[in-house]
Amino acid sequence: MIYGAITNSWRNQLDDADLADLISSAQDRGARHIELRQTCLGLAESGEGQDWRPNLTALADVVVRFPELTFDLAVALPCITTDIDPQGGLYQSQLEAARLVGGGSPHLRTVDPGTSDTPWETADDVAEAAGRIVPLVREAARQGVIFSMENSGQPLRSMALLVSEARAQLTVGEGHYLGLCPDPTNQLRRHPDSQPLDELASLPADYIKIVHFKQARDGVAIGSVDDGDLDCRAMRRILQGKAYDGPAVMEIPPHDDVFENLAASFAYLDA
After folding, report:
1. Is 2-270 CATH 3.20.20.150?
2. How many whole angstroms separate alpha carbon 103 and alpha carbon 148?
3. Closest Cα to residue 33, out of 92, 109, 91, 88?
4. What are the respective helix, strand and coil percentages of the chain, to the nearest 5?
5. Which residues of 157-190 are buried (b: 16+ CB within 10 A; e: fewer)?
6. What is the DSSP letter of 24?
7. pLDDT more than 70, % of the chain
8. Which of 115, 174, 188, 225 is the most buried (most CB within 10 A)?
9. What would the pLDDT profile of 252-270 be if each residue is shown by its tens digit?
């Protein structure tokens, strides 16, 4: 498992610090992967919403400084609730940026901010969403880019159903590029009576493309990965049992002491 950080943890620092310097600070604390999150890239992006575009030159300048690190690009893309043109300027720019930063394993991690909190339970529930993501995954696969989705509003079991139904419409090769970014704490905060770790344990290993660790107490986010509502060490053990060796990103809240909190999160999981 490759411990990592995400740039939206650095909102407090981005106005006064260079993105590369912040990445260097995370690396010094033990991060080996960086998730480059749209809206938190400093000079390496411009615009908002449909007008958002990456600054490829600035991104390249950042990534080349850290040959020991791996990177993925994370974007807010309403791919589940809205029809997105796979050949459109926004999506193509996201794929291009993912290829640029991802090296030999480019990865576009998506989240749909508009997904419903009502869990999907049947194939009919996910049919419309599957129809929307299939052409996007097909285009991502054509360009060699992994396409993963975070479980923003849905339980992991529901997202797994969506992946299964979408893969059924893709070739085996294309389907390999589609997967999930499991975030069990997201699920627990929105569905407090669910069992996200059991659902994580039930996921097929090849569905898991990247994972997020975060923590809350009584539903309120805390500053580091520690004891709380979710057993994060049990989550780590589940992933190890699946031989997961990809990025494990600490998605911790912005704070003036964010880098100390990052180091503490790594130490907690390894304790």
Report:
1. yes
2. 17
3. 109
4. 45, 15, 40
5. bbbbbbbbbbbeebeeebbebbbbbbbbbbbbbb
6. H
7. 100
8. 225
9. 999 999 999 999 999 999 9
Contact 251, 213 (CB under 8 A): yes
DSSP designation for 139: H
Mean pLDDT of all residues in 212-237: 96
Fill in the amino acid letter for 199. Answer: E
Q: How far apart are CA 52 and CA 145, in angstroms?
A: 19
Q: List the structure tokens of 252.
A: 């911790």
Per the confidence metrics, is the pTM higher than 0.90? yes
Q: Is the pLDDT reported for residue 168 higher than 90?
A: yes
Please report, for the chain, the start and end positions of each structural domain, with discontinuous segments joined by +. 2-270
Nearest to 176 by CA among 185, 166, 184: 166
Residue carrying the six token digits 């975070």: 150
Type of residue at 3: Y
Burial of 104 (0-12, 13-18, 19+ CB in 10 A): exposed
How many whole angstroms separate alpha carbon 227 and alpha carbon 141?
39
Nearest C-alpha neighbor of 13 from the set 21, 3, 4, 2: 21
As a whole number of angstroms, the distance between CA 95 and CA 75 comes to 10
Write the burial class of residue 64 (CB in 10 Å: 0-12 exposed, 13-18 middle, 19+ buried). Answer: exposed
Q: Cα torsion at 101, 112, 259, 225 (round to 10°)? A: -130
The tokens 């085996």 sit on which residue? 172
Span 94-120, pLDDT tens digits: 999 999 999 999 999 999 988 777 899
**CA atoms lying within 13 Å on the CB side of residue 234:** 15
Residue-wise pLDDT for 24-48, tens only, equals 999 999 999 999 999 999 999 999 8
Indicate the helix (H) or strand (E) that contains 33: strand 33-37
- Counting Cα atoms < 13 Å in the Cβ hemisphere of 253 gives 8
